[in-house]
Write a structure and sequence with these properties.
Number of helices: 12
CATH architecture of the domain at 32-255: Alpha-Beta Barrel
Strand content: 15-25%
Order of helices and strands: HHEEEHEHEEEHEHEHHEHEHHEH
Distance between the termini: 49 Å
Bound molecules: ligand PBG
Structural class: alpha/beta
Length: 335
C-alpha cells in the first residue's frame, strides 16, 4: 500500500526533469534522426512527368529521368537511403517483366548510384508489381482453384535479386512472403558474385488493410482473392518469431516488421529475439491516415508524424521505411 505521506509530500517528482526543453532533451530515451529513415519511391517506366498518387498526399509515381535529381536531393536532406518499387509499361502472368535489366527499378538504381554513389539503394523484390493478376507469386491451378506456387515464385525472385544487384543495388528486400526465398536469393547472389549485396527480409509481414494506398501507388491490387494465403494473420505474434528465426537461419542480414503501428508489440518481441538489425515499414495506410486526419483539422500533422516515428523506434526499430521521411527530415532540421 502507498504510504499516506508519500502522496502528500512526494520526494520523487518526475516532473522536475520536464521543466525545460534542454532537460527534457538530456533525459530523452529515444530520438529520431534523418539518418534513421529510408524513403520508399515508385518509378514508372512510362512517365515523363511525376504522376501524383491520389491516396497518398505528397507522393508521386516518378519518371526515371528524375532519379538522379532525387538521389542528390535526398542526400542533401540527410536521408541515407531509398527503397525502390517499379511500375512496368506492361505486365504478365509470371511477373517476368520484372527481370528486365532495363526495367524501371534497375534503371532507377543505376541512375541514383551514378548521381550519388553513397546513397543506399534498396530494392523491393516481389512479382506483384509485374504480374497482371497482382499476386505476389506465380499462380498454378489446383483442384480447389488457383494458388500461388511457392517454389516457382522463389526461382523468379532469386533471378530478380541478381538483376537488381547487377544494376548496383546495395540491399535487396524480398517482400513476397514465400517460404525459403531468403536462402534461395542468398545462394543466387553469392553464385553470381554478389556476396556483399545485403539482404533485408520482409520477415514479418501481415495481411493488412493498411497497404490500401500502396496498391494504387504500385498498381498491384490483387485481381481476385486476397493475400491471406501468404501474408501473416494479424492475430499471430508467436508466428512472427518463427518467421524471423527462419529468415535469420537462411541468411538474412536484416529483418523487417510490417506494418509498424498496429504491430509495435510484435516489433518489440522480434527485437528481443534476435541480434540482427531490424527495420519497420511505416506503410502507406499509416501515412495516409495521418494526412487525412490532418486535412480535416483533427490532428497536427508534424507533431503526429514525429510521435509515430518515435514510437516505432522506441518499440525497437533500428531504422524506418517511411513516406514521412522528407517532411520528418525537414522538421528535424527545424524547417
Ligand atoms: C509487395 C509490397 C506491398 C508493400 C510493400 N511491398 C504491398 C502488399 O503486400 O500488398 C506495401 C507498402 C505500403 O503499403 O506502403 N510488393
Amino acid at each position: 500500500m502507498v504510504k499516506r505521506w508519500v502522496m502528500a509530500f512526494p520526494t520523487h517528482r518526475p516532473r522536475r526533469l520536464r521543466t525545460t526543453p534542454e532537460l527534457r532533451a538530456l533525459v530523452r530515451e529515444t530520438t529520431v534522426s534523418p539518418g534513421d529513415l529510408v524513403y520508399p519511391m515508385f518509378f514508372h517506366a512510362g512517365l515523363s512527368e511525376p504522376r501524383p498518387i491520389a491516396s497518398m498526399p505528397g507522393v508521386s509515381q516518378l519518371p526515371i529521368s528524375h532519379a538522379k535529381k532525387w538521389a542528390k536531393d535526398l542526400r542533401a536532406r540527410g536521408i541515407p537511403g531509398v527503397i525502390l518499387f517499379g511500375l512496368p509499361e506492361k505486365k504478365d502472368a509470371e511477373g517476368r517483366v520484372g527481370l528486365d535489366p532495363n526495367g524501371p527499378v534497375p534503371r532507377a538504381v543505376r541512375e541514383m548510384k551514378e548521381a550519388c554513389p553513397e546513397l543506399l539503394v534498396m530494392t523491393d523484390v516481389c512479382v506483384d508489381e509485374y504480374t497482371d493478376h497482382g499476386h505476389c507469386g506465380v499462380l498454378r491451378d489446383t483442384p480447389h482453384g488457383k494458388e500461388v506456387d511457392n517454389d516457382a515464385t522463389i526461382a523468379i525472385l532469386a533471378e530478380m535479386s541478381v538483376v537488381h544487384a547487377k544494376a548496383g543495388a546495395d540491399v535487396v528486400a524480398p517482400s513476397d512472403m514465400m517460404d525459403g526465398r531468403v536462402a534461395k536469393i542468398r545462394q543466387a547472389l553469392d553464385s553470381e558474385g554478389f556476396s556483399s549485396t545485403a539482404l533485408l527480409s520482409y520477415s514479418v509481414k501481415y495481411a493488412s488493410a493498411f497497404y490500401g494506398p500502396f496498391r494504387d501507388a504500385a498498381d498491384c491490387a490483387p485481381q481476385f482473392g486476397d493475400r491471406a494465403g501468404y501474408q501473416m494473420d494479424p492475430g499471430n505474434a508467436r508466428e512472427a518469431l518463427r518467421e524471423a528465426a527462419l529468415d535469420e537461419e537462411e541468411g538474412a542480414d536484416m529483418l523487417m516488421v510490417k506494418p509498424a503501428l498496429p504491430y509495435l508489440d510484435v516489433l518489440r518481441d522480434v527485437r528481443k529475439s534476435t541480434a540482427l538489425p531490424i527495420a519497420a515499414y511505416n506503410v502507406s495506410g499509416e501515412y495516409s491516415m495521418l494526412h487525412a486526419a490532418a486535412e480535416r483539422g483533427m490532428i497536427d500533422l508534424d507533431r503526429a508524424t514525429m510521435e509515430v516515428l518515435t514510437s516505432i523506434k522506441r518499440a525497437g526499430a533500428d531504422f524506418i521505411l517511411t513516406y514521412h521521411a522528407l517532411r520528418a527530415a525537414e522538421i528535424l532540421q527545424g524547417k
